[in-house]
Amino acid sequence: LNVSDLATISVGGTEVNWGDFCILNDGTYCIIGFTKESSEFQVFTSSDHGVTWENKGVISITGDGTDGNEISQPCVMSSGRIMATYWDNAVTGTVCKIAYSDDNGMTWNVVTFGSDYSSTGSFFSEIDDTIMMIARMNAYPNYEAPAYISYSNDGGNTWSKVVASSTIKMHADEGVAYVHGNTVEVMTLSRDYNGRNPGGQVGNLYHY
Description:
There is one protein chain. The protein has strands at residues 10-11, 14-23, 29-35, 42-46, 54-58, 60-63, 70-76, 82-87, 96-101, 107-114, 119-127, 130-137, 145-152, 163-170, 175-180, 183-188, 204-207. Helix content is 0%, strand content 52%. It is mostly beta strands.
């Protein structure tokens, strides 16, 4: 892939400056992010595999969240519900929060499920009728941190007590998990810390 082959995503002549991508169950491409002109989080969709995009409007946040804060790392469940990370902009926050949307990203309900735990990015995987959340513990200012794990048996409305993994270590907020029978394969990302930690930290592959 050559950089010259890439095209900037633009909506009505306005570039999408930052966003996270997912594919809805009907095949629609979806970005939750903002533009150079506005820092408000908005939903952008494409029905032609990313060639053209439509701005669906500014998102709203309900429940334990506040409008204007960040929704990121969306993951579409088989039910169509989108699970995502909710950021409260607190570097050393003390609460785990995630969000879900049942209207393709326009409205988000924030759920608090660990007042004694603080995490940064979260990602999700389905195991039969259970949703598994894996999140990087907020260990600021340290970089390596154990993964937090929680489960929901009601589609993301309520969650089990957060447990710190004794085996999964994370250096970045992002990762991905795949379910193979009774095994969950977890891949975590590497990170170079912008030269603050020469050589960086590698990503890892775990079987959980």
